[in-house]
Amino acid sequence: MSWLDYFRGRRQEQPASASAAKERLQIVLAHERIGRTREDFLPKLQQDLVAVVARYVAIDPGKVNVNLDRGGDMSTLAIEIELPAPSAVRMVAGAR
Amino acid sequence: MAQVVVVTSGKGGVGKTTSSAAFATGLAQRGKKTVVIDFDVGLRNLDLIMGVERRVVFDIVNVISGEARLNQALIRDKRVDTLSILPASQTRDKDALTRDGVAKIIEELSKDFDYILCDSPAGIEKGALLALYFADQAVVVTNPEVSSVRDSDRILGVLQSRSKRAEEKKDPVKEHLLVTRFDPVRVERGEMLKLEDIQEILSIPLLGVIPESESVLKASNTGTPVILDAESMAGQAYADAVSRFLGEEKPHRFIEAEKKGLFKRLFGGRAA
Ligand SMILES: Nc1ncnc2c1ncn2[C@@H]1O[C@H](COP(=O)(O)OP(=O)(O)OP(=O)(O)O)[C@@H](O)[C@H]1O
Ligand SMILES: [Mg+2]
Asked: Region (Disordered): which ranges (chain A) (predicted)?
């Protein structure tokens, strides 16, 4: 580390990483505190969604992917369900 | 078959989670398919150190209780694509982890991964016992300090008597010593245990020495395993340890006190 880096490093990097830490903590703790007062609904939500889809198509429960990104103002939940080939879909639909 | 590696210590706060994150990332960087499991149920932290806390949907307890499939609970790392994380539960109590449940998870993971790293909680109670039970290898994290060395000795005894390998009288768990938060200046001043002393007392092969380094705090602030900070001494020391783990010969670095120049002495330069 040269003496120039020494001054640059101290002044800039330290506050930058500490504020990243604060922001990350605020987001994750906001979600965890909510979770403490009520049951985590995600497992149930996923089961319900899969059950609804399964009424229409024969799906493999192993091919359901849940992706979450918790944010400060907004979170996104992406549920990816792999549907079988169209022929299989028609079979289930026809059987109803 | 995957190798199951427990990162353990007995004593709390010595650097298990920091080391698990660094080691898992390092193995994955070498192309090994690696999954790191947080066994600290109720006090999960690995997700923060790995920077995936916003993406946790399911955890190991959800998988054991059948609420989620294993592949749904695994979080794929966005930086190193051969790396996955299985988070601990933050809300359930420790009893939700059962030996049978963990056995099933490890068996299933063994099919897809080369290395399964288990980040143990502190202590020698249920959670720590479960984290080490299935281990083929153990990384024993030790600080140059009396209580840490004593606890490491204790956990070595547990590995030799209460692991699956011990119970089934198979080859013993392969043990590695990882000394962390090593401060050569304080060792030189006689304030901290010397490396040779720790090795003499514990007498297991030395895998690596990680210096006390400010970069570890910075890395945890941003959720980046410190091994990805290739400039930092701690990052380089972890990379060397991973190389040795994979069988390469590497001399130990950062174990001698740096001879300080006048400038650094005046301004008190510290380890980066
Ligand atoms: N090489 C290092 N240099 C400086 N600080 C370090 C180093 N290694 C770990 N630390 C710090 O030590 C503290 C404990 O680290 P860590 O959480 O990894 O320990 P742990 O053994 O997992 O703790 P616990 O027993 O609570 O699970 C953290 O604040 C971490 O930033
Ligand atoms: Mg820990």
From this structure: 1-21
